[in-house]
Design brief:
The complex is a heterodimer of chains A (525) and B (305).
Chain A: H1 2-16, E1 28-32, H2 48-57, E2 59-60, E3 62-64, E4 70-72, E5 75-80, E6 86-91, H3 105-116, H4 120-126, E7 129-135, E8 139-144, H5 151-155, E9 164-165, H6 168-171, E10 188-190, E11 200-205, E12 229-233, H7 239-248, E13 253-254, H8 259-266, E14 271-274, E15 280-286, H9 296-305, H10 308-315, E16 322-323, H11 342-345, H12 349-359, E17 366-371, H13 380-391, E18 395-400, H14 402-408, E19 422-428, H15 457-468, H16 472-489, E20 492-498, E21 502-505
Parallel strand pairs in A: 1-12, 1-13, 17-18, 17-19
Antiparallel strand pairs in A: 2-9, 3-4, 5-6, 6-8, 7-8, 10-11, 11-12, 13-21, 14-21, 15-19, 15-20, 16-20
Chain B: H1 4-21, H2 26-31, H3 37-47, H4 53-65, H5 79-114, H6 119-133, H7 136-150, H8 166-200, H9 203-210, H10 215-226, H11 228-244, H12 247-252, H13 258-267, H14 271-299
The chains are: A alpha+beta (525), B mainly alpha (305).
Chain lengths: 525, 305
């Protein structure tokens, strides 16, 4: 009789999915990321989702705190030689890979070598590097050909590509190939078997992770893990469905609250809506290779017409969440100064019309690419087109999906042959907050790595001088000089800043919303 | 069966060519927003996209005849594995939807035909216009608002595999299946009504009634059985359409099925995945149509192959 009863109970349990009580209750944090996770190699791609995945499983030599200051992370101590050409680093004790092996200087050197071949700032650093070598088991040395003022900044850069440290055997993967093994020394272990592309990614607490003693701040400080498991829900991508799931308590955090839902969620008593401390900057990029934007005066006319408020009002709409910013390096960051921005910040339509008249503009239409499927930036081209029309330019606004846009912007052809004149995008502040990492500033003509290809020898000289400067006060002035020159030659047009709100259940504690990247340590529920 | 092969070959060639002439470069998408033109060019080479089109097609066709649909550019996983991961969710949704739709629509259609011109008939015709006209996502959001958020009876989103238990599986499929079935209920009910109405005018129905058979027996045994062929055809087409056409429902309810995979693959210009999925959908269409054709023999003994 007892056996029969037990079998019936077991049958009901299996059929109706009641939890088998032998399993211990785990604390699971369910997060809806801002996008889908597809590429698991954060060095191979600059995609932010891959970067955030990197922060889960890898650690970094240095981190960036909430005040944009670089702080040691895996590094315990370091020294710089008197000639500022030799950097010696010692790793913290107890650092271990997820497979149990110790982290060594050789791992670091191999990781930096691969990163330097993919990342723009890493590449700039490598032009100064004479040699990188392991020193003992837990140290490494970087020897420079000439002093550079951004060694520590580069090693602690918080956004793509972040110099994540990987085991030597993985870091030796050729930089143009993706890694296939995902072992890090970070606070979470990636559960590859549970990863279902487009469905979910699962990370479990790395029990042997040794956090720093300092309080967590930005990507720096002690990465304390208080949950057993973090699940990224990759299937939930409809914004309305995300909000519904959060309100009902089926998920804990959504990374990307659409602006139209912001005020509704603010009223929900179970939901905590937050603004990130560090925001994003919108920018519109000129293609310098083709008319009319191969004419600096036309670009200046556009800058003068680009009042940032209409862009922000149309795109964001919620006054709490945006602010005009005259700096190309993001306001509120150490280099976020207004130097040289008058052409835009004090510009107006009358001035724009005068500049355009003086430019000899011949009526060549401006092809603006408008992404119809990216609600975070889809209104910017409309505003740009309207302002340019008011200034006197002829505009051809072409609608397309974002993926077509990213393919087309790589083309150097003339607009009539499938090229383009302008597109608008958004950057997280850490990706543009200095003259080295700001992708819109290199000006080497067709050899410029990022699309738009401006050419200006003076701007390049100023950037190089900034890279070599080691005195922080002088660097601020030099960043201002770089910015002034960039406005003068109109490399691109910054069109305002905003913060992307996030939302979580009020049961979540210790949630960090610094905005450098989405990180999930320090959280409890 | 042999006719399947030329169909698949034509589909394969068409899909391959259409994807190559569509704007969008998978390499630029994979590289990320801050990638340089050199990095994008490097990725293009790695993916073999710098090869001439006939060479690219030859490589893919060779893999395909060996049963290998290639590797996803985007996920770096075999396409067959991706399809295998998603198939259960989509098949479950299609199955429950079609079961719900058939169980509701066929009796409604029969009753409407039986009471032709009456209030029920008019109501059903009105409902079918509603079912055809209201977008799926609106039905979905309304159901979520009412059933999940206001009443708290069912989850808002997600999918549970059947091996997690029968109840969680059903619980997560009820709302999506109802959402999706509205249009199929409208379609099948209309076709059932028209077919049964036609059958009810036949001499054998008059004979059956004259013999004093109960009305229910006349309707089911004689009218419905003789009206089955067009109904089965519509149900068959419905199943085939459901497999590839559940994109919106899968998005609204966050179901990781083949519909979402198709959208993701198209947005990422993931050529091998799109090609593999279209071929798979073609195979399903051909297979379901074959089954429908074979089922005619059961419903109408006059049909011979």
């Amino acid at each position: 009789m007892n056996l029969k009863r037990t079998l019936v109970a077991l049958g009901i349990t299996v059929a109706f999915g009641a939890p088998i009580s032998l399993a211990q209750a785990q604390t699971v944090l369910t997060v809806v990321p801002h996008s889908n996770l597809a590429i698991l190699d954060p060095i191979w791609t600059t995609a932010y989702m891959s970067r955030n995945h990197g922060y889960m499983i890898y650690d970094t030599l240095f981190g960036t705190d909430e005040n944009s200051k670089i702080q040691p992370q895996m590094v315990d101590t370091w020294t710089v030689s008197a000639d500022k050409k030799v950097y010696d680093f010692k790793l913290r004790a107890g650092l271990e890979w997820h497979d149990g092996a110790p982290v060594t200087g050789e791992d670091v050197v191999a990781s930096l070598d691969r990163w330097g071949k993919r990342d723009a700032m890493g590449g700039a650093l490598m032009t100064f590097v004479a040699k990188m070598e392991a020193v003992g088991k837990d140290g490494f040395r970087i020897t420079l050909k000439e002093p550079a003022g951004f060694v520590i900044e580069a090693l602690g850069k918080p956004s793509s590509n972040v110099p994540f440290i990987m085991p030597k055997r993985i870091a030796e993967t050729p930089p143009d190939k993706q890694i296939t093994e995902y072992i890090g020394s970070g606070p979470y272990v990636f559960q590859k078997d549970e990863f279902k592309p487009g469905d979910k990614a699962v990370y479990t607490k790395f029990a042997k992770y040794v956090p720093r003693k300092e309080k967590a701040s930005g990507t720096a400080g002690g990465k304390q893990v208080h949950v057993d498991k973090v699940v990224w829900n990759l299937a939930l991508r409809d914004y309305q469905a995300q909000v519904n799931a959060l309100v009902k308590g089926e998920v804990d955090i959504i990374e990307n609250v659409p602006f139209q839902h912001y005020e509704t969620l603010l009223k929900d008593k179970n939901v905590d809506v937050r603004k990130t401390k560090i925001g994003l900057q919108y920018m519109c990029r000129f293609n310098h290779l083709h008319p009319p934007f191969n004419n600096v005066k036309v670009r200046q006319a556009v800058l003068a017409s680009f009042n940032q408020r209409p862009f922000l009002q149309a795109q964001v709409g919620v006054a709490d969440l945006y602010k005009p910013c005259p700096s190309m390096f993001a306001c509120g960051t150490p280099y976020g100064v207004a130097t040289g921005s008058d052409i835009q910040s004090k510009g107006n339509m009358k001035k724009a019309q005068e500049l355009l008249k003086a430019s000899g503009y011949d009526g060549t239409p401006v092809v603006i690419m408008k992404p119809t499927d990216l609600s975070s930036i889809d209104k910017l081209p409309e505003v740009a087109a309207q302002l340019m029309r008011q200034a006197g330019l002829k505009v051809d606004l072409q609608a397309m999906d974002w993926q077509t846009l990213v393919s087309r912007r790589a083309k150097k052809d003339a607009p009539k042959d499938g090229g383009w004149n302008m597109f608008c995008t958004a950057w997280v502040s850490p990706d543009i907050d200095n003259p080295v990492n700001n992708a819109a500033l290199p000006a080497r003509g067709a050899a410029t790595p990022w699309f738009g290809w401006p050419e200006d020898a003076k701007l390049e000289e100023l950037r190089k001088a900034f890279m070599m400067e080691t005195d922080e006060k002088k660097k601020i002035a030099m960043a201002g000089a770089v910015q002034a020159r960039a406005f003068e030659v109109a490399t691109h047009a910054p069109v305002g800043e905003y913060t992307q709100p996030l939302a979580g259940r009020k049961t979540i504690k210790g949630w960090m919303t610094h905005g450098l990247a989405h990180t999930y340590w320090n959280i409890s529920k | 069966m042999l006719a399947t092969i030329p169909v698949l070959v034509i589909v394969a060639v068409l899909v391959f060519l259409l994807l190559r002439i569509t704007p969008g470069d998978p390499a630029a998408i994979l590289a990320g927003d801050a990638a340089s033109t050199e990095q994008i060019e490097g990725i293009r080479k790695t993916l073999g996209l710098d090869q001439p089109l006939p060479v690219q097609f030859g490589i893919w066709a060779l893999q395909m005849v060996q049963g290998d649909l290639g590797e996803s550019y985007y996920y770096k996983v075999r396409v067959t594995e991706l399809i295998a991961q998603r198939i259960e969710a989509t098949f479950s949704l299609a199955l429950v939807t079609i079961v719900v739709a058939v169980l509701i629509s066929v009796p409604l259609g029969v009753i409407a035909a039986w009471r032709f011109g009456g209030w029920f008939d008019r109501f059903l015709m009105g409902f079918s216009v509603f079912g055809f006209s209201v977008p799926v996502f609106i039905v979905g959001y309304l159901l979520v608002w009412l059933v999940s958020l206001k009443l708290g009876w069912l989850p808002v989103q997600g999918y549970k595999r059947i091996d997690a238990g029968l109840w969680p599986w059903i619980q997560h499929l009820v709302l999506p299946a109802i959402t999706l079935s509205v249009i199929y209920i409208a379609l099948i009910a209309r076709v059932t009504r028209a077919s049964v109405l036609e059958a009810l005018g036949e001499d054998y129905i008059r004979t059956a009634r004259a013999k004093g058979l109960p009305e229910s027996r006349v309707l089911i045994k004689h009218a419905l059985a003789n009206a089955a062929v067009p109904i089965v055809t519509v149900i068959g087409i419905g199943i085939a359409l459901l497999i590839g056409g559940v994109v919106v429902t899968e998005s609204v309810y966050a179901i990781p099925g083949l519909g979402r995979l198709t959208v993701d693959a198209v947005l990422a210009r993931d050529f091998p995945t799109i090609q593999g999925l279209i071929l798979f959908f073609s195979l399903i269409y051909v297979g379901v149509n074959l089954l429908v054709d074979l089922s005619y023999v059961v419903f109408d003994p006059r049909i011979r192959y």
